[in-house]
Amino acid sequence: MTLATLARRAGALLLVGAGLISATGTAAQADTVAGAYSAVVFPDQSHSLVVSFINSATRSVDVTMYELRDTTAVNALIARQRAGVQVRVILDGKHTSVNGAAYSALSAAGVGVTYSSSAFVYTHQKTVTVDGAKSLILTGNLDSTYYSSSRDYGVFDTDANDVAAIEQVFAADYAQTSITPSDGDNLVWSPTDSQDRLLALINGAQTSLDVEELEFGDPALVDALTAAANRGVTVRVVGMNPSSYGSQFDEVTAAGAKVVTYSSTTGLYIHAKAIVADYGTSTAKVFAGSENFSDNSLNNNRELGLIVSDSGVLNTIETTFATDFSNGAPY
């Protein structure tokens, strides 16, 4: 995909209106606070908005990140620490080759930084929480190496129960003590309940399922999508690496699903992890988070996502999905 295509996509999103970038709020049952959520889309939008979010902190910044390799973001965290803000960071301990420079810089500046607990295969969560009041839940890492090409989403969450649960888990993971995470109002945690929550989302779909996932190997979720297609749900998938997931793509397409894929040479890398169910109906819901369709991601890693029915988040992710689906190579 050319830079011109990406630019057209960004323009198209802007033409949809600011309502797609900031949540409008709905009275739907999954959301307890109207306007508590808003979505962002990368690379259409700049990661400078994450830095601005960090810079907005006046009391605290808590970061859990699988990969942190962004000098601007690291410097922003250090600046907040030097301004008297409490900054704490958890980095995945199995990726020291990627995270080592950030770890060293943060530690030298007095930031509270630790490598993740060995209780998880990976700490794959990607979350920034500011002042204990607002969290940004990302599908992608803060790794500038991939900013220009990776399709990813983020959801800002100000729901008090969600943020409190995120902070409770952060405190336990930072101290490397065990905890059974609370879902707050809308959270989806690994290894606690993400597989069950995503299966419920897929199995509950009545009209449509739009899935955008980097990894597509978990048998339970793939079988659930196949069953949905067999019962008449319109299933569309945007994925990567048909050479790696050919048998899974074959399974869902045999049931009537439509699959498109991208490769690393097309200019867009599908790193996102998102599901939109029953878009355009009163029961529509959207998932976004760090969880891949893999057994490890769902059952062995520390991961975080959320499922909401907020209209702004739904519109943002579905609009982007539709563009990605139309531009992908049919499988």
Structure description:
Helix 2 packs parallel to helix 3 (71-82). The strands form three sheets. Strands 1, 2, 4, 5, 6, 7, 9 and 14 form an eight-stranded mixed sheet that branches. By secondary structure, the chain is an alpha/beta fold. Mean pLDDT is 91; it is low at 1-32. Helices cover 36% and strands 26% of the residues.
Q: What is shown here, in short?
A:
This protein has 331 residues and is α/β, with parallel strands linked by helices.
What's the layout of helices and strands?
Blueprint: H1 3-16, E1 37-42, H2 48-55, E2 60-65, E3 68-69, H3 71-82, E4 86-91, H4 96-108, E5 112-115, E6 126-130, E7 134-138, E8 142-143, E9 150-157, H5 160-175, E10 187-190, H6 194-203, E11 208-213, H7 219-230, E12 234-240, H8 242-254, E13 258-262, E14 269-270, E15 273-277, E16 285-289, H9 295-299, E17 303-308, H10 311-327, E18 329-330
Parallel strand pairs: 2-4, 3-8, 4-5, 9-14, 11-12, 12-13
Antiparallel strand pairs: 1-9, 2-6, 6-7, 7-9, 10-17, 11-15, 13-18, 15-16, 16-17
Helix pairs in contact: 2-3, 6-7, 7-8
